[in-house]
Structure of DNA primase:
Amino acid sequence: MSTSADYDLKERVRAAVDILDVIGQGTEVRPQGRNFVVRCPFHNDRRPSLTINPERQSWKCWVCDIGGDVFSYVMQRDGVDFPTALRTLAEQAGIAMEEFRRGKKTKPGDPDDRATLFDAIAAVADAYYKHLEHGKGDQVDLARQYLDQRGISDESRRRFRIGFAPDQWSFAIDHLQQKNFSGAVAEAAGVAIARGSGNGHYDRFRGRLIFPIHDLQDRPISMGGRVIPTIAQRSENSEAAKYINGPETLLFRKSQQLYGLQLARDAIRHGGEVLVMEGYTDVVAARQAGIEPVVAVLGTALGEAHVRILKRFAHRVVLVLDGDDAGQRRADQVLELFVGAGVDLRVLTLPDGSDPADFIHQNGADAFNELVKQSPDAFDHKLAKLSEGVDWRKDTHAASTAMESVLGIMAKSSGDDIRHEQLIVRLSDASGIAVDRIQRRLDVLRSERSQNSRKPFATKRPSRPTPPPRPAATGAADLDVNAMLSSMADDDDESASPYAPAVIAGRSAGTPNARLTPISGIDRELFEALIECPELAGMAVEAIDPSWLSSNTAQMLLSAYQDLDLAGRDLDVDSLLLMVDNEQLKNQIVTLQHRVGLRSGQSSEDADRRYTAIITRYREREFESEKTRQIERLASATLDDDQELALLKELLEAERFRQGIETPTEQEN
């Protein structure tokens, strides 16, 4: 459950940073009336189209149709979830989040202090880099020779801060001790391992090239080591793993990191495409050849968290694989993930089992880019692999297995893609089965999947005939709107955080594939009235039934207002933006706020009157809906005479009540 500490932290961080400074960092900011404008970093902006409102501390790009507060800007800019954006801004403002972390406090020098770990990792990465750059001796010479053999230039080495860990037991530990870091900190940072005897530590990386792994703020958070064959042979360690990564730490989770993303982010965003490779040297070689939108996984298969990260920056992902069987299996494993996320996945299989670094070195960037252009859709790739050596018209079992495999994956996507129609035609051509029969089977699979995964979307709150007393500002608050959004957020279970949305007991977290739908019509009028006159929100919390609202976005906004009310918070836009963590919902709030601002100074009905009229319209609509249902019951011919008479009386009394007509007495009858 979220606590008031979460809200207080968000409030403190927002007050400590200026959205104008955050958005304007490194770009030209121009005044425009009471606002400011900058070139939007999220599309190819020829003229400034992103508006910053310093008074409201909000932003909006009308071309991209995205906006929100300072938190949602960092989420969009860095492609991160809300807890990460909150931490980024807290660190920028010098606010220690650990002070708010369920009562647990850390101090500089502790192995669980994030700032200490950042400093320790940076110190070791810098020491390894300088050792390769300026060090003396046979080992350093062999490391440089290996880089030369792989075609990695000095410029690339410096760009990626590649270093060298000498084949020693305490190079990193000694360096950290000179800077007053303890062995426990070295272990917590992932650069040292505790001795089995419990007496001290030794270096994790020895005799390896070092590739620092950076987060999106370009801070080193871990590192990977590549064995140098000649050094391994000298130390009689030729069986050593080719690559090793740092362990999971407070800063580093390999299932949520991609090597080189901090360098490739802008190129990916502007081109809409990202190439995913398998090794550090592949990324370095590609960037060196001028191929910029490239990243690599870190010793793990692509997972759901990776897909969500990539989806923030690109709509098309090209999976670059070696031509071996293992590469093909990896393509099959990730296809379902990308289909479920609605991402266009392409599969590039390199010829002759070569890896990207070798192929680019031997054939050049133009040849590689041509392969990228020709890379097939992942469905086409899978269909081609399933069809190898199979006569679909003769081998019924193989054909049926292949068909079910492809359709099973297609069933997980929305089905509104022209590519799917084309694929069904190709399936029909290959199998001899009619298109309509294949489509019917796909519809059945989609229906089965929908029934199996359907969950009720809880919108109604318990009735509250008497509002509860407002709790003190320091008490726990039932802030559950983010729980409703948790299944839509770009975060996963592995990133559990005290600031991550949590599911409140007894409430639904929403359907897994739900998406926010725009607020329109009477719902939009309602929330514009509440934003214009926050005093009305207290009445709306009690008067509005969530089932009256047409969109899930409107229902969630009402829930946010209800949670603010229960927590004793102000019911204004600033509080509303702090309450919700979802960037789409923040965008909707800022859009509504902008519409209200456009009416400022214009003649309009009194806000109270408009609110009363809106409530009346809601009730009228509900009355008509109920009336229609009752009439349908009468027309169904399933009621006996007494039931029909009772229902007619109910309809008549309801109509009289709606029109303000008193029910006649027996004498009047």
Q: What stands out?
A: The first strand starts at residue 30 and ends at 32. Residues 454-513, 661-669 have pLDDT under 50 and may be disordered.
